[in-house]
Amino acid sequence: MKLRTVSELLSEDITIPEVDIKGWVRTFRANRFIALNDGSTINNIQCVVDFENFDEALLKRITTGAAVHIKGELVESQGKGQKVEIQVNSIDILGDSDPETYPIQPKKHSFEFLRENAHLRTRTNTFSAIMRLRSSLSYAIHKYFNENGFYYMHAPIITGSDAEGAGEMFKVTNLDTEKPPLNDEGKIDYSKDFFGKETNLTVSGQLEAETYAMSLGKVYTFGPTFRAENSNTSRHLAEFWMIEPEVAFMDLAGNMDLAEDFMKSVIKHILDNNRDDLEFLDKRLQDEEKTKPQAERSEMTLIEKLNFVTDNNFKRVSYTEAIDILRNCKPNKKKKFKYPINEWGVDLQSEHERFLVEKHFKCPVILFDYPANIKAFYMRLNDDGKTVRAMDILFPGIGEIVGGAQREERLDILKERMAAINIPEEDLWWYLDLRKFGTAVHSGFGLGFERLVMFATGMGNIRDVIPFPRTPQNAEF
Ligand code: 4AD
Ligand code: MG
Fold first, then answer.
1. Residue nearest ligand 1's atom 7 by CA
2. H or E element: which one contains 27?
3. Which residues form the domain of 98?
4. Could you tell me if 349 and 435 lie in one domain?
5. Which N-terminal stretch is annotated as signal sequence (predicted)?
């Protein structure tokens, strides 16, 4: 007999004399009702046991967390709450679970506790819903690019360059760290290291993606990204996933159009395909909101927020306009910002980004044309000589979700900018080559995948939207 999934069976509206299903017991109530889940849906299937027909010893082993194999008849449910249920004919205990020590009890657990039990947390409704949505979003991303003529490119994970120039990298080495070889100056001799040079885990696949855009036209990367920034916030991970499209002959306006269309499309995909999980998380968020003071509550439910993004244009605002708004806004005047905004040129902090998105514009915002000296070296210099063709997309509840730019395609200006921040030309000779041989306008952006998953699930901590989070002082599992 073919093994069926809970998801399949719950969508049946006929009786089926013999069904075969395997899953984990969520609860066993009144020695009679098993709520069984197999991960295929947030919903459990109710399996009804006539205990008179079963051995007492077997019934005792039907405990929360146990893996079971059930055969029975799919029938119209007698009780409320479900359309169909399984009238059980046989139960096989595949794996026992000790009810005394099983961490995932059928009650509400704190997210902190579940993080410590990340290997079991996807056995809860909340985390199974989040991770199904994560999977669905990543499918939607590949689908979008595939349908729009992009090639999927695998950027290297081990690199010799610091794409963002921020110096927040994890070293990759196989030198003996106790006794590394030293050069004449007494420094570590990386020429003796595995790759014959200093290498690190990538902070972005962009520079490599640019080489592919300048030959294949439209490409994207979607891979793990590593940053050793010591920011222990609810929005930063040391290991996260980034999506980086890069397109030849596209300017900043085209980049904004692409980013907006892309974000809307992937959000629409989950609205169309992951209704049960979204409705569950929507309700969870509403319950959480009720515990907050009225003034801090969100005006929209999760599903309303997702619909809002797909249905409305993102507001496009220059950095200079944004600074004007921030300089004159109430919280700035009342000194409510931790970092007050006084002059043009300062970097925006998350408190400012969130003010713009959540209080001022009340919609996703694309900020562009930032001061050159707060942005990366590869962004195209504007004619004013002081701003670059950068863009950041800010989302409600998240702040920055996308960072991108039109790239500097002029060799002389790129060299000047690299020199100004001491990036040796030898290190990026191949990147400069792109500007020597058939250079052209091109643009791209990076979407932080976990920030997208946070937005899509309404979760407030980035550690709860990646299977096994890596953060300062934590690499368990
Ligand atoms: O703004 P960032 O640093 O841009 C780049 O890396 C460019 N190379 C992208 C490009 O133009 N191809 O990072 C892009 C996005 C951010 O907007 C944020 O969503 C996410 O990556 N991000 C992080 N997400 C989680 N944890 C971190 N430590 C992150 N750092 C950046
Ligand atoms: Mg950024």
1. 446
2. strand 16-29
3. 3-102
4. yes
5. none
